């Protein structure tokens, strides 16, 4: 449009109302009818007409509104379709680290699954602007917000792939679900959208079984159970603290693998989730995870940053390191980690060969790091995630050499920040 | 009809035996014909030896009944169970092949979600001929499968994997539940086809089911003794469990891999849960102590063969599990008998016969 009028005060007021609708429960009948109609239409357009808000409009008793509702055949849903688990909206925060400036297509794709929930978007400090579509209950954190909370010296901790950890820090919900901003919802073999929120929460709310492998995988899934030979004393399981999902299309391979097989795409939908056994380490992929913040939040650390970390997953190992720490903590605290469903559809981004050209420290990293984690033993005194992380940090400093001193220090800093923000 | 220029040989046709324990009949083989016929079968007939087991025409097989077992093993026949499918391990003993595939006679060909019949044997062979990855969990499961690979973060030094010693398959339809679960959920059927094979990590035990199993006989055969079950024994339906726990501990020690997952077979017969409960009853209690025992087993470094590992294990069983019940003392003795029998029937390749382990008994008669 060549001639853009600035928005009117009324328009801004209606927008603000829309944004805060979840907090408004008072009577709307004081509003003049034409404004009410405008608000109603704007609510419809933003996709924010929930049963509660519909009731607010109905309660005004205004004729125009009621006839509009009737004309559009809007009905109060009396028997709601329940998701697979009883997910309370206020239990969940969806945390996205934004690398791209326009999140519109991403959020629109996820709207059917995310719109119920509170979303935290943490803007990568390198990003100039950020566009988010309407109709979501979303809180955006920028670099200045980060500095306000943690101070300017620590703000660099939350850049690049580690931005999202700021979201973990400031969230006060029990469950966090976090995916990369280059993922779309996957489809099951029946063509239905995979509801990653429902499935991750199902994983987190059912016990894990790390002490003995069940050959029929997660025994708490419908249609499954513990097999013959599974000790009964182990059948109550332990709480699941971390749920690692998978990816269709572009699997989370490293740069050498993807460069070698540029056309390889993951098309196999494996309908299983299972507990990663005790003492078995695994590579956690930050592309699609969920965790119980109350149980392991302090262990989800943004400690390891490769010197040349880039904006594609091929150029980072922060999540792999974090996963090794979390698994160690879970093993020690007798918590579970599950891996498998749900799937996301991962879109093409970046070039494996270009990533390979950068000096790729990640390749060498795992060779030193894995033996360290395999032999790491935490003391019985460490009974919380914070205490475990501090012990791990001390061991990193002592045994992994000067290359990882800053990692160890960052881990300790993180725990301090975590405690400071909570107090 | 076009004929291939060179004959297409099924994989490992001269290196693999199919071992089937049976007490009824082998009609189920008709359904497996196209997959099994090229291979040699070893049938172990349990129960009444005077009964004739009919083998469908066209299969190349050797059949052993209880009389044969007694004749071949002499006094060592005490280690082979009677009136229990545990007798199948006799088939492992007498086989001369490198690989074994064992299947129950109530297991049929399953179909994958696309409707195609599953060649379970071919999948087991693929599992056994590709490496396993017990030292780090690959989140995309078996990286050697077509369309899969090691994920980001998987150490490169571990990507060669280790030799796969055991391939544990699964079952659609009647799941392998224990008696209490069967009683509570008599109608539950396993209909979830999980299209994955994965390595069971080192240090993790699992419940090994013997009804759809492949293994590398040369590498782990001696560890796959199916224990004392059935007639005259206080326990049943724990034969494969026992073999699985022993074998996994030994595989972990020797640096061998165990895979589980595909292939699926169609398990058609649900056994009577009340009968099962009677058999399993002791096992359900004993396994609470058996599992911690196996989880704490540390084998000495000089146990470099499965036989040495197994004999060492038998000593530990006597010492640690003996106090639970005299059954375990008996079992530990028969574990050694088994190894003696194994060594006798499978002399070392360098020509030297391995001396029997028990020095107190008379030297075994030469076959």
Outline the structure in words.
The complex is a heterodimer of chains A (423) and B (367). Chain A is of the alpha/beta class. Chain A has 15 helices and nine strands. In chain A, strands 1, 2, 3, 4, 5, 6, 7, 8 and 9 form a nine-stranded mixed sheet that branches. In chain A, strand 1, helix 5 and strand 2 (118-123) form a beta-alpha-beta unit. The model of chain A is unreliable at 79-84 (pLDDT under 50). Chain B has 367 residues and is an alpha/beta fold. Helix content of chain B is 32%, strand content 15%. Chain B has helices at residues 29-36, 66-73, 89-94, 120-129, 179-184, 217-220, 239-254, 273-296, 306-321, 326-345; strands at residues 16-22, 40-45, 60-64, 99-103, 107-109, 164-173, 197-199, 212-216, 257-267. In chain B, helix 1 links the parallel strand 1 (16-22) and strand 2. In chain B, helix 7 crosses helix 9 (306-321) and helix 9 packs antiparallel against helix 10 (326-345). Residues 350-355 and 358-367 of chain B have low confidence and may be disordered. The chains are: A alpha/beta (423), B alpha/beta (367). The interface between A and B is large, with 58 and 57 residues.
């Amino acid at each position: 449009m060549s001639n853009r009028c600035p928005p009117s005060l009324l328009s801004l007021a209606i927008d603000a109302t829309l944004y805060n609708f979840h907090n408004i429960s008072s009577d709307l009948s004081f509003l003049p009818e034409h404004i009410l109609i405008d608000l109603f239409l704007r609510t419809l357009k933003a996709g924010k007409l929930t049963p509660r808000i519909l009731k607010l409009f109905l309660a005004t008793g205004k004729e125009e509104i009621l006839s509009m509702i009737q004309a559009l055949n809007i009905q109060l849903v009396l028997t709601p379709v329940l998701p697979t688990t009883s997910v309370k909206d206020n239990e969940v925060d969806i945390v996205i680290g934004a690398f791209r400036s326009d999140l519109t297509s991403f959020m629109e794709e996820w709207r059917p699954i995310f719109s119920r929930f509170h979303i935290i978007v943490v803007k990568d400090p390198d990003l100039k602007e950020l566009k988010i579509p309407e109709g979501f209950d979303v809180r955006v954190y920028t670099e200045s917000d980060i500095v306000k909370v943690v101070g300017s010296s620590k703000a660099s901790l939350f850049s690049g792939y580690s931005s999202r950890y700021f979201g973990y820090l400031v969230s006060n919900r029990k469950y966090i679900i976090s995916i990369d901003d280059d993922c779309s919802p996957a489809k099951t073999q029946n063509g239905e959208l995979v509801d990653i929120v429902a499935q991750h929460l199902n994983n987190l709310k059912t016990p894990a079984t790390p002490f003995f492998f069940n050959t029929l995988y997660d025994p708490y899934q419908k249609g499954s159970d513990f097999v013959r030979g599974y000790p009964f004393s182990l059948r109550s399981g332990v709480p699941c603290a971390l749920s690692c999902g998978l990816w269709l299309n572009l699997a989370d391979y490293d740069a050498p693998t993807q460069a070698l097989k540029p056309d390889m795409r993951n098309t196999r939908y494996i309908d299983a989730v299972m507990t990663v056994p005790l003492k078995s380490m695994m590579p956690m992929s930050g592309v699609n995870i969920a965790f119980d913040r109350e149980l392991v939040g302090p262990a989800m650390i943004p400690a390891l940053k490769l010197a040349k970390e880039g904006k594609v997953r091929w150029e980072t190992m922060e999540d792999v390191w974090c996963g090794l720490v979390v698994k160690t903590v879970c093993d020690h605290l007798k918590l579970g980690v599950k891996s498998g469903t749900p799937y996301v559809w991962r879109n093409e981004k970046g070039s494996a060969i270009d990533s390979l050209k950068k000096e790729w420290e990640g390749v060498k990293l795992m060779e030193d790091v894995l033996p360290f984690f395999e032999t790491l033993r935490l003391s019985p005194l460490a009974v919380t995630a914070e205490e475990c992380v501090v012990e791990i940090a001390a061991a990193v400093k002592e045994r992994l050499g000067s290359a990882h001193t800053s990692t160890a220090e960052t881990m300790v800093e993180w725990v301090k920040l975590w405690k400071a923000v909570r107090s | 009809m076009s004929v291939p220029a060179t004959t297409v040989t099924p994989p490992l046709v001269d290196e693999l035996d199919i071992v089937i324990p049976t007490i009824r009949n082998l009609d189920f083989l008709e359904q497996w014909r196209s997959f099994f016929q090229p291979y040699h079968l070893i049938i172990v007939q349990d129960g009444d030896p005077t009964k004739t087991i009919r083998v469908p025409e066209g299969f190349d097989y050797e059949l052993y009944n209880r009389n044969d077992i007694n004749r071949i093993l002499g006094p060592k026949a005490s280690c082979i169970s009677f009136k229990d499918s545990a007798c199948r391990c006799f088939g492992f003993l007498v086989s001369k092949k490198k690989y074994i595939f064992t299947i129950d006679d109530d297991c049929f060909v399953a179909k994958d979600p696309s409707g195609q019949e599953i060649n379970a044997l071919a999948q087991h062979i693929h599992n056994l001929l590709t490496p396993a990855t017990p030292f780090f969990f690959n989140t995309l499961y078996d990286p050697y499968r077509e369309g899969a690979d090691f994920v980001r973060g998987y150490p490169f030094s571990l990507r060669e994997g280790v030799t796969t010693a055991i391939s544990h398959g699964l079952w659609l339809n009647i799941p392998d539940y224990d008696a209490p679960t069967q009683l509570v959920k008599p109608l539950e059927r396993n209909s979830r086809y999980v299209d994955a094979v994965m390595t069971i990590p080192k240090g993790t035990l699992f419940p090994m089911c013997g009804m759809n199993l492949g293994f590398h006989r040369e590498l782990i055969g001696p560890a796959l003794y199916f224990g004392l079950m059935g007639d005259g024994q206080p326990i049943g339906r724990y034969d494969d469990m026992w073999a699985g726990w022993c074998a996994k501990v030994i595989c972990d020690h020797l640096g061998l891999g165990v895979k589980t997952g595909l292939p699926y077979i169609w398990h058609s017969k649900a056994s009577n849960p009340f009968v099962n409960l009677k058999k399993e009853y002791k096992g359900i209690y004993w396994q609470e102590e058996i599992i911690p025992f196996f989880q704490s087993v540390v084998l000495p470094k000089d146990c470099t063969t499965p036989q040495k590992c197994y004999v060492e294990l038998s000593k530990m069983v006597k010492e640690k599990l003996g106090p639970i019940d005299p059954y375990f003392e008996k079992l530990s003795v028969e574990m050694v008998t088994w190894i003696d029998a194994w060594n006798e029937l499978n002399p070392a390749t360098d020509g030297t016969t391995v001396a029997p382990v028990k020095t107190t008994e008379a030297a075994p008669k030469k076959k």
